[in-house]
Amino acid sequence: MDNAAFRRYGHAFVDWLADYFENIEKLPVKSKTLPGDLLSRLPASAPTDGESMDEIFKDFRELIMPGISHWQHPAWFAYFPANNSPPSVLAEMLTAGLGSQCMSWQTSPAATELEERVMDWLRQMIGLPPEFSGVIQDTASTASLCALLSAREYATGFTANQKGTNEPLVVYASTEAHSSIEKGVKIAGLGKDNLRLIQTRDDFSMCPESLAKAIEEDLGSGLKPACVVATLGTTSSMAMDPVEAVADICKQYGLWLHVDAAFAGTAAVDPNHRWFMKGTENCDSFVFNPHKWMLTNFDCSAYFVRDPEILLRTLGMQPEYLKTAADTEVKNYRDWGIQLGRRFRALKLWFVVRSYGTGGIRKMVNRHITMAKDFSARVDSDKCFELMAPRQLSLVCFRYKPGDTDEEGLNQINQQLMERVNATGEVFLTHTVLRGKYTLRLSVGQRTTSARHIQQAWQLIKEASQQITV
Q1: Which pLDDT does position 166 carry in this prediction?
Q2: Three-state secondary structure along the chain?
Q3: pLDDT tens per residue across span 366-419
Q4: Cβ-based neighbour number of residue 141 at 10 Å
């Protein structure tokens, strides 16, 4: 493709994207394709000769698009959001065009220094103290793995990387912690058997007393407690672990405290919603994802550490071919994470924060929280529905509860209800299980969601519930 063709198709693709943003609500939120639909229509081997961009783009529209679930749809209430925004998309175009590999300061000085500055902006925006330093990771899963590795090295006096772990190291998280913690424990070589899942209180947050008891029991058994992972905004119910109490326990026993606020962290941009951050000033590491609720398209995870030296001693590598004359004066972010190669993720974050400002982000967060409050009130006032967990921020957990149906029946009914609602193509909900009870989740966080979409979701849920035979 020559530059003239690139220019022509580039304009065409931007026009297509603008139309997509404008008309996305006309599309079904969740793809209706069946397993194997696309595979059956794709050639079994790559073409020998190059094909025209007209043909490729036609196949994109006709083959690929039917198999896409539309995360940017205003009626996307599933999982947590993975927002983008026009400024972020434009920045990603520039990032792709530059094609920079930003592993060190020397490979693209502006990329490193912009990341350093933008991460400090984020630190200030969410209220972390000045002693924290930030780095952009791809996902919270990777950031939490970095935290677990740092905790492992800290607990072993930085010998585990060299000699391996000679004694079991124990990690603690609540039963509601994200599955990435268990995966990280396994990848870090700590062993799933050494992960303690701590019971939760009535609101599904970690019970500090149970945590302290588990630590004491492990110490009594000759094991070495190493790390606690506290969650601010659990995936199932948005439960907020009591970080302040957990931090006191970690300080008492000398344990690493990692805080996972993947979705909820964005809400801390508004001081009125920063209550759940109490105690985070005493953690060792903290992560949240701008690619969820802060209008920055995937992937972009903000990871903060109190002592970067521990991270560098855990993950840093200095082969001769990577050394530069500037190393003593700059940050080389390749040593702040698992990957050597790094994308220029700071650019899209910079575009977003400058385009919307902290005020614009706060306004969006408050709008979403207000809509979730409205939906929660609708559920709470209907005798045939019930809330399954306290509403926190913009997530509502609920279920349909008709008559005297037993728990097994309620689980089946609510699964049917969700399937009926999603089959309309008008909205997309997902579920969880809270203490054995099938629970529907309505997560409000998509950039273009309005009160009209909340009202529509409730109407569809009510209509679907009336079609189910109890």
Answers
A1: 83
A2: CCHHHHHHHHHHHHHHHHHHHHHHHHCCCCCCCCCCCCHHHCCCCCCCCCCCHHHHHHHHHHHHHHHCCCCCCCCECCCCCCCCCHHHHHHHHHHHHHCCCCCCCCCCHHHHHHHHHHHHHHHHHHCCCCCCEEEEECCHHHHHHHHHHHHHHHHCCCCHHHHCCCCCEEEEEECCCCHHHHHHHHHCCCCHHHEEEECECCCCCECHHHHHHHHHHHHHCCCEEEEEEEEECCCCCCCECCHHHHHHHHHHHCCEEEEECCCHHHHHHCHHHCHHHCCHHHCCEEEECHHHHCCCCCCCEEEEECCHHHHHHHHCCCCHHHCCCCCCCCCCHHHHCCCCCCCCCHHHHHHHHHHHHHHHHHHHHHHHHHHHHHHHHHHHCCCCEEECCCCECCEEEEEECCCCCCHHHHHHHHHHHHHHHHHCCCCECEEEEECCEEEEEEECCCCCCCHHHHHHHHHHHHHHHHCCCC
A3: 999 999 999 999 999 999 999 999 999 999 999 999 988 899 999 999 999 999
A4: 19
Cα dihedral 350, 132, 444, 22 in deg (nearest 10): 10
pTM greater than 0.90 (yes/no): yes
Question: What gap in Å lies between CA 330 and CA 307, rounded to an integer?
Answer: 16
Quote the Cα angle for 224-229-234, to 5°. 150
Q: Are 134 and 209 in contact (CB under 8 A)?
A: no
Sorted by where each begins, the domain ranges of the chain are 100-343
Q: Give the residue among 145, 300, 292, 160 at the shortest CA–CA distance from 227.
A: 145
Residue type, 176: E
Backbone φ and ψ for 36, nearest 5 degrees, come out as: 90, -10
Which residues are within 8 A (CB) of 381 and not within 5 positions of it... i.e. 6 or more apart?
none
Token pair of 69 as six digits: 């679930």
Tokens of residue 154, six digits: 């800290």
- Quick count: other Cβ atoms within 10 Å of Cβ 124? 13
- Identify the band that residue 111 occupies on the pLDDT scale cut at 50, 70 and 90: very high
Pairing outcome for strands 169-174 and 224-231: parallel
Q: How many residues does the chain have?
A: 470
How many Cα atoms occupy the beta-carbon half-sphere of 14 within 13 Å? 13
CATH architecture of structural domain 100-343: 3-Layer(aba) Sandwich (3.40)
Query: In whole angstroms, what is the distance from residue 452 CA to residue 444 CA?
Result: 12
Backbone angles phi, psi at 195, to 5 degrees: -100, 120
